[in-house]
Amino acid sequence: MTLLVLQKVGKSFGAIRALTDVDLTIGRGEIVGLMGDNGAGKSTLVKLIAGNFPPTSGEIMLDDETVHFHKPVEARAKGIEVVYQDLALCNNLSAAANVFLGREIKKRIGPFRWLDHGAMIQKAGELFAELKSETRPRDLVRQMSGGQRQAVAIARTRLSKAKIVLMDEPTAAISVRQVAEVLGLIRRLRDAGISVVLISHRMPDVFEVCDRVIVMRRGHKVADKPIDRTSPEEVTGLITGAIQVA
């Protein structure tokens, strides 16, 4: 069942054409790899979906409804979450505090309000357990591994009942063991019925967890294939331009 549809989407920044007539569909509970060289248009495409800016042309549909996002909070309200490469975590705060950052649970008696730390710790623990992560709610983020930090960022997307999570290079610069942990987290999002768009330069990761791979080059979509009908060699050729289209 289709969740997200892009039809003839284009984006220009003055005289620079960043995207040209991109057609794209994402199914429910599907993991889609998004690959391409630097400047291929991946980041622009993700930012359009995430509501950082509107497309210059074309249409974006979510749940069979045309949507017009002008800022990320509008996309988030519709169930679109982003986990950026820098994760946007506060190192001096606990895992639970980071999960609820900007979305804190509060107690209120009359005119007085205060943070309900106990409720946030409990809920964060439930989210980490659901993700089968060893991350502990009270631990400070600065003490965590790359895989645990990804778990915190992913747990944050679960608060808003996300329909689709856009992940920007989640396995960059982490150890082999942590890569396996993060790929496991991505699978568990899919198992929960959440769609994932995995932006990555790591071919083994894409071929291990993705159902489909989409390749961008110079602002155009040059391939959109089931993962079992392509190969790392073909994808590399598409990224570099040795193969024009597939």
UniProtKB/TrEMBL annotation:
Residues 4-243 form the ABC transporter domain. Keywords: ATP-binding, Nucleotide-binding. InterPro entries: AAA+_ATPase, ABC_carbohydrate_import_ATPase, ABC_transporter-like_ATP-bd, P-loop_NTPase. Transmembrane segments: none annotated. It comes from the Bacteria. GO terms for molecular function: ATP binding; ATP hydrolysis activity. Pfam families: ABC_tran. This is Sugar ABC transporter ATP-binding protein. It comes from Labrys okinawensis. The lineage of its organism: Bacteria, Pseudomonadati, Pseudomonadota, Alphaproteobacteria, Hyphomicrobiales.
